[in-house]
Automatic annotation (TrEMBL):
PANTHER family found in the cross-reference section: N-ACETYLGALACTOSAMINE PERMEASE II COMPONENT-RELATED, TRANSPORT PROTEIN, PTS SYSTEM
InterPro entries (alphabetical): GatZ_KbaZ_carbometab, PTS_IID_man
Keyword list, A-Z: Membrane, Transmembrane, Transmembrane helix
PROSITE patterns reported for this sequence: PTS_EIID
GO biological process, one term: phosphoenolpyruvate-dependent sugar phosphotransferase system
Stated name of the protein: PTS system, mannose-specific IID component
Organism listed in the record: Anaerostipes rhamnosivorans
Amino acid sequence: MSEQKKTKIQEKESVLTKKDLNKCYRRLSLWGETSLNFERMQAIGWCNAMVPALKKIYTKKQDLAAALQRHLQFFNTELMFGNLIFGPSIALEEEKAENSNKIPDELITSFKTGTMGPVAAIGDTIHWGTAWTLGTAFAGALAARGALSAAAVLLGLVVGCEIVAYMLFCLGYSTGRRSFAQIMKSGLLNEILDGANILGMFMMGVLSSSLVTAEPALKIGKFVLKDTLDGIVPGFLPLLIVFGVYYLIRKKQVSTAKIVLLIIAIGIAGSVIGLF
């Protein structure tokens, strides 16, 4: 390899080391949402996570101050999948440090604000709506039976989410601002969402049958209400309760607190009249 080619490769090498990037990731993972406020939401935690990289990228005080101000603007997304924005943001700052005319301030800001909404929708669906909900529900079912493996399930859930978040961060940084667009165009996330929905419905059915119990004690002669309902569909009443709660939350926007009080009231009333 000629000396000229070696020089070009060296010029393209990042000034940030793996250690620098890992430090940024740890800051976002640990403290990304510790300073939430209505004015800036996650911006302070986000900016704090960017500091190790920005200090190394910008050697001039005024350039560093300008970069910090950019990342203190309002920002809010789901932080696990938010690494698809975090990684490219660091890569954009590196490009801007090399050529400020090529990467204006508005490009970095518009990239963050333009992608935080779609990423939040994806992250909330996959991370919190599916993985975390099902994982904690499964751990709760194990804990209700006195199984110590419930703690292992929770630990595995946390570790698994952390691994995914770090992989997304590395992917985002390595591919730059094109990463989010590439992932969206690939259709991979749509397949993941479809799979998550199928898994969610399957798990909700399993958990509903094991955790929701409602055994009517009503008997009139030879008529036994429980046997009649089970003859229609095994576990019909628990299933009916699950869909009833879902209907109240999704269609009627009834708060969970009111639903809990309603279930308690129905349980007490049913016990008094001998239904349960």
